[in-house]
Task: inverse folding
């Protein structure tokens, strides 16, 4: 297939790559900023980025191989036997697993931390940490410890995803044989 339909499919593939990978990298960058911020709850851009809810833009990364497979099926089918689509798929797989294992759970943890102010945790309230249920000021400390862990996981995940993006971009554009 050539012409407008193929171009539209290619545009969808590229848009899902840019949106999905870009949002995952942005999550890592914002998490790094949050980790070094003395008062992250007072930063409106951090609160806005990590507002509660699913980051659907980052989930666009999940449709990248669907559009890629459609491009191969409708375009040059001989490319299926070449290494570049498989290297790209491998880079996508690493990025998708990283997102599911590090980025998305960490982002949800950051959102939970922002949603409950530390001041609201009183002596009779509790929070969970890796050591179990803790109360009062220990809950505040455990919450901040978990926030640091979540920020670190999201930042690491964003770094891995950015490397995967560069690998996939080089391979997709260069198409080594």
Result:
């Amino acid at each position: 297939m050539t012409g407008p339909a193929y171009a539209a499919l290619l545009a969808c593939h590229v848009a899902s790559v840019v949106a999905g990978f870009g949002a995952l990298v942005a999550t890592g960058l914002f998490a790094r900023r949050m980790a070094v911020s003395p008062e992250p709850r007072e930063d409106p851009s951090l609160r806005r980025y990590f507002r509660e809810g699913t980051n659907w833009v980052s989930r666009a990364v999940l449709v990248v191989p669907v559009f890629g497979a459609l491009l191969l099926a409708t375009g040059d089918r001989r490319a299926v036997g070449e290494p570049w689509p498989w290297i790209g798929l491998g880079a996508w797989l690493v990025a998708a697993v990283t997102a599911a294992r590090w980025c998305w759970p960490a982002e949800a943890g950051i959102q939970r931390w922002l949603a409950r102010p530390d001041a609201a945790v009183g002596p009779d309230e509790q929070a969970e940490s890796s050591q179990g249920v803790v109360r009062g000021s220990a809950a505040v400390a455990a919450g901040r410890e978990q926030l640091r862990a979540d920020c670190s996981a999201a930042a690491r995940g964003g770094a891995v995803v950015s490397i995967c993006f560069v690998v996939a971009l080089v391979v997709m554009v260069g198409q080594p044989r």
Observations:
- The radius of gyration is 20 Å.
- Confidence is low (pLDDT under 50) at residues 119-125.
- The CA atoms of residues 129 and 145 lie 8 Å apart.
- The chain is about 70% helix and 5% strand.
